[in-house]
Structure formats: structure tokens, C-alpha cells
């Protein structure tokens, strides 16, 4: 199955060595992208088995049937991750329900059980993938606030108002208390972002961009392309491009703020996957502008 897309030859070799060629496909249009389940399976399968073993020692495994027999006669021999369900708890954290298949053996027979290991993943605080274990029941997996395999939220027009209210409640509560216009620059500042002006293209193709990390970018000054260093947590807006398209500056800033709120978990997953293997991590716009088969990735620029 094709799980990763690679456009960098150096990184392509690393991915093959780490995961094997079967999970890689090649395209010059896409940065390397990692599904959350691939990240968990590649980095934590052994940790899940250790967690199962520790629960077994404490007699905390939720066996179905004669648990005394399994504790007395068997031991856990291997654990396989079958599926990973992810549900957003806030814009920087999510609940993980990892379905595992563990084999127990008494030396003669193999007994297999499926469990659900529930934990948390966060871009803002310490993660805890192993909070508790329960018997696996699909009906027990929450359906609310489900994230895609890339940690992109499923948003529809029906819940956009609720999302907007959540953003305002956290970062601009006075807008919910009084009928006042939202100052987009102040909203961005409250979210931890600085708004700066820059000429982002020579053909008005870019209205604004958000940068989570410090990096060098190409911009235009007096019609000439130059390299400019942008600080982390910066929103750049192109006033000339916005005027050419008849756009409101506030709307563009708010659009970038929504990216920060809805898509930072996606960016953070790609960041931790690539951080040891690339000199410069692709920015959110690199993914937003790509041509992707996955519908949730196509939604990034339109959410």
C-alpha cells in the first residue's frame, strides 16, 4: 500500500531504509507526508507491547473469558497495531484510541485478543499514549471530532459557526460579549502571531502566508526577487495582491489565523516526522498548495 509521497531524493533513501519501499510513492509535486497511524506504528509498536506486558504483570488486562487461565498459563508474546482512531480534544491536542491485537501463548497454543489502548497526543504538552486499556468495541470509539489520518479536521458548513465561536472564545472573547468588529491583527497577536507586510509574488498569486518556524523565503522588493528571513509565528500579507483581487485585509489575516487553529496538529505531525531528516521543514503552505489524492489535504486551503 502507498503511504508516503516523496519528492526529495535524499529523503527518499531515508524513507526506504526506515519503512521499506512498499509504503512509498514518488511525486515531484508533494512534500513527504506521514499519516498519524504510520507514525505510531513505526515508532511505538514495541512500546505498546511493553505496555501490554506491564498491564499483564499487574493483572490489568481486560480478558474475555477465563482470565485466571490466561494469567496462570500464558504470557504475551507479540502485539500488532491494527488501527488508530484520533479525535480532537482542542486545537493542539487529541485523544488516541489505538486498536492492538496481542497474542498470548502457553507454549502450545496461541490466544489472540483485541484491545483498545487510549491515550493523548499533543503539540503543546507531554504526550501520554498509554492512559488505559479496555476491550476493543467499535461502538465504544467516539464519533465526535474525528480527525483524518493526517490530523486534519473534518469540517462542514454546519459546524463552521461553532469553530468560529471557539476561536473567538479563546482569543477574542469580547466579540462574543459585545457587537464589535474583530480586529484581525489583534486576533493574530492574541494567538501568538505577528502580522507583517511583504510582496509575496510578482503576479499577485499569493495574498498571505503563515510561518510556524523561522525560515528564509523569496519575496519581491521594487520588482526584484530577494531572500528575506521570516521569524517563527509570523503572518505575512501582500497588500498589493489583495488590492488587485479586491480582498479585505482583515479577511486574509483571519484566514491565516484559521489555518493556525485548524491545521497546526497536521503541521506538527509532519514536523516531528521530518525534523531529524531535513534541514528545513516544509511550511504549511507547501502542503496546502500541493496536489494530493487525500481529500482532507485538499481541504487545508479551503477550510
Account of the 3D structure:
The protein is of the alpha+beta class. Helix content is 36%, strand content 27%. The chain has 10 helices and 11 strands. It has a 4-stranded antiparallel beta sheet with strand order 3-4-5-6. Strand 5 (110-122) and strand 6 form a beta hairpin. Helix 6 (184-190) runs parallel beside helix 8 (249-274). The protein is elongated. The protein starts with a strand and ends with a helix.
Strand order of the largest sheet: 3-4-5-6
Helix content: 25-40%
Termini distance? 28 Å
Report the sheet-strand fraction.
Answer: 25-35%
> Helix and strand succession?
EHEHHEEEEHHHEEEEEHHHH
Provide the gyration radius in Å.
Answer: 23 Å
Helix and strand topology:
Layout: E1 4-6, H1 9-19, E2 24-26, H2 36-57, H3 67-73, E3 75-90, E4 93-105, E5 110-122, E6 128-135, H4 157-171, H5 174-177, H6 184-190, E7 194-197, E8 208-211, E9 215-221, E10 224-230, E11 234-237, H7 239-245, H8 249-274, H9 284-288, H10 295-299
Parallel strand pairs: 1-2, 7-11
Antiparallel strand pairs: 3-4, 4-5, 5-6, 8-11, 9-10
Helix pairs in contact: 6-8
Task: Summarize this structure briefly.
This protein has helices spanning 9-19, 36-57, 67-73, 157-171, 174-177, 184-190, 239-245, 249-274, 284-288, 295-299, and strands spanning 4-6, 24-26, 75-90, 93-105, 110-122, 128-135, 194-197, 208-211, 215-221, 224-230, 234-237. With 303 residues, the chain is α+β, with helices and mostly antiparallel strands.
Amino acid at each position: 500500500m502507498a503511504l508516503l509521497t516523496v519528492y526529495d531524493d535524499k529523503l527518499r533513501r531515508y524513507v526506504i531504509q526506515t519503512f521499506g519501499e512498499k509504503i512509498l510513492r514518488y511525486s515531484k509535486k508533494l512534500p513527504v507526508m506521514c499519516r498519524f497511524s504510520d507514525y505510531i506504528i513505526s515508532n511505538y509498536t514495541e512500546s505498546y507491547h511493553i505496555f501490554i506486558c506491564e498491564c499483564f504483570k499487574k493483572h490489568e488486562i481486560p480478558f474475555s473469558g477465563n482470565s485466571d487461565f490466561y494469567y496462570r498459563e500464558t504470557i504475551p508474546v507479540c502485539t500488532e497495531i491494527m488501527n488508530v482512531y484520533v479525535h480532537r480534544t482542542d486545537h493542539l491536542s487529541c485523544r488516541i484510541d489505538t486498536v492492538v491485537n496481542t497474542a498470548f501463548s502457553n507454549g502450545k497454543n496461541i490466544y489472540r485478543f483485541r484491545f483498545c489502548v487510549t491515550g493523548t497526543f499533543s503539540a503543546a504538552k507531554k504526550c501520554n499514549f498509554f492512559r488505559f486499556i479496555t476491550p476493543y468495541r467499535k461502538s465504544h470509539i467516539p464519533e465526535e471530532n474525528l480527525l483524518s489520518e493526517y490530523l486534519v479536521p473534518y469540517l462542514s458548513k454546519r459546524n463552521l459557526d461553532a469553530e468560529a465561536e471557539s476561536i473567538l472564545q479563546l482569543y477574542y472573547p469580547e466579540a462574543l460579549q459585545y457587537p464589535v468588529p474583530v480586529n484581525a491583527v489583534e486576533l493574530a497577536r492574541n494567538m501568538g502571531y505577528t502580522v507583517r507586510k511583504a510582496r509575496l509574488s510578482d503576479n499577485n498569486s499569493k495574498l498571505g502566508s503563515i510561518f510556524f518556524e523561522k525560515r528564509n523565503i523569496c519575496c519581491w522588493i521594487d520588482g526584484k526577487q530577494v531572500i528575506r528571513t521570516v521569524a517563527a509565528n509570523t503572518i505575512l500579507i501582500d497588500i498589493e495582491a489583495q488590492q488587485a483581487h479586491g480582498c479585505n485585509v482583515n479577511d486574509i489575516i483571519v484566514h491565516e489565523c484559521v489555518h493556525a487553529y485548524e491545521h497546526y496538529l497536521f503541521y506538527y505531525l509532519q514536523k516531528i516526522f521530518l525534523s531529524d531528516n531535513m534541514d528545513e521543514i516544509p511550511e504549511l503552505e507547501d502542503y496546502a498548495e500541493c496536489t494530493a489524492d487525500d481529500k482532507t489535504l485538499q481541504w487545508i486551503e479551503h477550510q
